[in-house]
């Protein structure tokens, strides 16, 4: 996902992790984004984020980001983890269990 500023990215990251919708959120830093919006070609700086969450928490994460985000249509995409360190993948599931 992307955010308009580092401050917004940090707020999103903190909220998602505190609410256990993501086990971890990486804030990658400033990126350049080129896109069409309302018939206008835009060239903007944004901040990229990667949120680690299991598939069963994705819908809740998307809803939360949409509720918090300043963009009308935030860029949220899911990329499946087809493999990796099993210990890490288990940790992601453990840390995103809904509170009891």
Q: What would you note in describing this structure?
A:
- The protein is α+β, with helices and mostly antiparallel strands and 100 residues long.
- It has helices spanning 6-18, 58-68, 86-95, and strands spanning 2-3, 24-37, 40-52.
- The chain has three helices and three strands, in the order E-H-E-E-H-H.
- It has a three-stranded antiparallel sheet, with helices on one face.
- The model has no long low-confidence stretch (mean pLDDT 97).
CATH domain fold name = Alpha-Beta Plaits
> What is the H/E order?
EHEEHH
Runs in which pLDDT lies below 50 for 5 or more consecutive residues are none
Shape: elongated
Domain count: 1
* Percent helix: 25-40%
CATH architecture, by name, is 2-Layer Sandwich
Q: Would you tell me the overall average pLDDT?
A: 97
What's a quick, concise take on this entry?
The chain is an alpha+beta fold and 100 residues long.
Looking at this protein, list some descriptive labels.
alpha+beta; Alpha-Beta Plaits; three-stranded antiparallel β-sheet; 3 strands; 34% helix
Helix-strand blueprint:
Elements: E1 2-3, H1 6-18, E2 24-37, E3 40-52, H2 58-68, H3 86-95
Antiparallel strand pairs: 1-3, 2-3
């Amino acid at each position: 996902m992307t955010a308009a500023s580092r401050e917004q990215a940090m707020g999103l990251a903190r909220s998602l992790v505190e609410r256990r919708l993501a086990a971890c959120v990486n804030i990658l830093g400033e990126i350049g984004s080129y896109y069409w919006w309302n018939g206008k070609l835009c060239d903007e700086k944004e901040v990229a984020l990667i949120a680690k969450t299991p598939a069963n928490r994705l819908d809740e994460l998307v809803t939360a980001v949409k509720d918090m985000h300043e963009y009308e249509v935030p860029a949220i995409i899911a990329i499946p983890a087809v493999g990796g360190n099993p210990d890490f993948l288990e940790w992601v599931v453990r840390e995103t269990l809904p509170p009891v």
